[in-house]
Structures are given as structure tokens and as C-alpha cells.
Amino acid sequence: MRFAGIKELKHRTMDILKESENEDIIITAYGKPVAILHHITEEDLTDYLIENDPVFKTKIEEAYTEYVGKGGVPADAIMKKLEKRRGTKKV
Fold first, then answer.
1. What does the DSSP assignment read for 2-69?
2. In what order do the strands lie in the sheet with 32-37?
3. Is 91's pLDDT higher than 90?
4. Residue 72 confidence (pLDDT) above 90
5. What are the pLDDT digits (tens) for 13-28?
6. 33, 27, 30: which is closest to 10 by C-alpha?
7. Beta partners for residue 28, in sequence order
8. What is the pLDDT of residues 21-62, one digit of tens each?
9. Which domains does the chain have, with CATH numbers?
10. Would you say 27 and 36 are in contact if contact means Cβ atoms under 8 Å apart?
């Protein structure tokens, strides 16, 4: 992990972005940390967007609250229901 100031980031943006593939880079302004550059792939981006989507988080929290309040359905019951819908037999 290394530090880079705003001025360095401005003048060496592509170099710093390439360096972030190997290590995180903390960006500083006036000697204080303000951001972290962390390399991600397209797959990582998808995960990040889902995990940090406030609408998605709300839906998960609501589903969990409902689960705690009403109880859940055992996995075996769900599997049997799905198998019955597809008309397949459990092997």
C-alpha cells in the first residue's frame, strides 16, 4: 500500500491506476487521506453495485425481518415443491 497526493494523481493518473492493479493506493490531500484506489474487475463492480444499492439493501432487510417474524420454510420443502412443479423425481 502506498500514498499519493492529489498533485501526483493529477499528473500521473494512468500510471497510478496501473499501480493500483498491484496494491491499494491511498490518495491524500494536504497530507490527510481522502480516498483509496483499489483495482476491481467487471465482476467485482457488479458485486459492489449490488452490495451497495440502497434499494437492494432495503429489500433484503425487509425480507429478513419478515423471515424472523413469520419463520422460514425448510430447504427440503422448497426442493419438494420445485420438483413437483417440474415433474421430476428426486434421485
1. EEEEHHHHHHSHHHHHHHTTTS-EEEEETTEEEEEE----HHHHHHHHHHT-HHHHHHHHHHHHHHHH
2. 2-5, 25-29, 32-37
3. no
4. no
5. 999 999 999 999 999 9
6. 27
7. 5, 33
8. 999 999 999 999 999 999 999 889 999 998 899 999 999 999
9. 2-37 (3.40.1620.10), 42-83 (no CATH)
10. yes
